[in-house]
Amino acid sequence: MPVNKKLLLLPGDGIGPEIVNEVRKIISWMDKRRSVTFDITEGLIGGAAIDATGGPLPDKTLEAAHASDAVLMGAAGGPKWETLPFEVQPERGLLGIRKELGLFANLRPAIVFDALADASTLKLDVVKGLDIMIVRELTGGIYFGEPRGVEDIGDGNRRGFNTLTYTTPEIQRIGRVAMDLAAKRDKRVCSIDKANVLETTVMWREEMTKIGKDYPDIDLSHMYVDNAAMQLVRNPKQFDVIVTTNMFGDILSDCAAMLTGSLGMLPSASLGAPDENGRQAALYEPVHGTAPDIAGQGIANPLAQILSYSMLLRYSFDMFEDADFIDQAVQNVLGQGLRTGDIMGEGSAKISTSEMGDAIINELDKQAA
Ligand code: IPM
Ligand code: MG
Question: Which position has the higher pLDDT, 181 or 117?
Answer without folding.
Answer: 181
